[in-house]
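We now fix the convention by which a protein and its fold are recorded. Here is one such record, which you should read through line by line:

>
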Amino acid sequence: MCGIIGILSTTKKDVGLYIYDALTIIQHRGQDAAGIATASKGRFYMRKGNGLVRNVFRTKHMGKLIGDMGIGHIRYPTAGSSSEAEAQPFYVNSPYGIAFAHNGNLTNAKVLAQEIFEQDLRHLNTNSDSEILLNILASEIAEEQKRRINENDIFKAVTKLHQRVKGAYAAIGMIPGFGIFGFRDPNGIRPLILGERTTKDGTKYMLTSESVALTALGYKIIRDIEPGEAIVIDRKGQVHSMQCASNPRLSPCIFEFVYFARPDSIIDNISVYKSRLRMGEKLANKIKSKWPDEKIDVVIPIPDTSRTAALQLANALEVKYREGFIKNRYIARTFIMPGQKQRKKSVRQKLSAIELEFKDKNVLLVDDSIVRGTTSKEIVQMARSSGAKKVFFASAAPPVRYPNVYGIDMASKNEFIAHEKSTDEVCEAIGSDKLIYQNLDDLIWSVQQGNPKIETFDCSCFDGNYLTKDIDKPYLDNLEAERSDKAKEDAITNESSELIYNDAD
């Protein structure tokens, strides 16, 4: 999962600082790397590197990121490596010069990489599927062989791109002297939203992954980009759009609502906050049905994502809600850390228990989901060490049993604690007295109520149903070999240094 930002201003003022601010707002979507590219008078200005936004960019860097248009990216690696060379935005000089940022994952990346070399006669410098997507787009634009580009050339290229590319992708690009553009895959798995801010000096437009980046910077939400749609905002501030897919169908990733997105975001007209309230309500109903005789003294969320669901669950059960864990906000999100050892080490660094909320009580711990079980097991142990009589555990999401191939780092099924395990076996593995999962139908209902027009969601990590219909066992086996924790640890150990263009620190 990554976060993307694109801003075009008709005020002729530099946009670099606004992109920086927007990236910090969606930092939760990726903590591995960050980058910004701007354009002014036909030239690109770029800064990118590994680390949080605040670590990559200093005052001296921001002063050099001039221009009235720009794009930004924060990375959470799922394909490629953690090398600085994989940081985005990417850039190609032909045709016209294109800077590009992408959120998602291409499921036919290997086939496309071969095509790019043999048919398109283009060179790839990294293992990133984002670079593949950029070169596919650039190759299709180049087919027009025009001196000056217009919005129709972008639409034609994206139409052809949809025909070649499979997977999940929301992308933003920029061409100096022309404008910015964005597009979304035909299933709309990854989010992309448009907003504008009008002042007496002119109008600014923003394309981004989450609405919270718009509202926090004073932008008005215009609309979500439709699945398969491409949108172009030219230098004059004219907005052009076109449906570029033959059979688009909105099927957003349901894990955005479970975990990744901020609760104050709205994705595809669905409030993330309200969807999590409904998750808590549904989970409470299940607890009443399955555990009618179990005495629960207090409901405690595992911060931060589960708070909303846990609060509603406690209200529905008519049980006290308490904050039993205090989070160290200077520790990154453990789910998106690259290796199991690092995740395990960080749990106790991230959380500390308030003993008086646990001592001599039957405690219900609520989390948004259980993936590898590392955090869950450590937290159950912390609750017992703090004096809890019984520790119950509730997950606002169903068991994660299948790899996610569309941009979330759930590649290795053997690392899922629920893989080939029953609920009772998972309960024993994490050390809780009882464990309950949300039903998938209830999860879908909780999200769908926000926008009943959406008929399907990408729930592949829960049900193994892959929307692109191109995922088979050999693909999953290969993915597991490339992206398991063991593979990542080996890659970090063996990773060679690569030269990339960047300004000096």
Remarks:
- The longest strand covers residues 98-106.
- The chain is about 30% helix and 25% strand.
- Residues 493-505 have pLDDT under 50 and may be disordered.
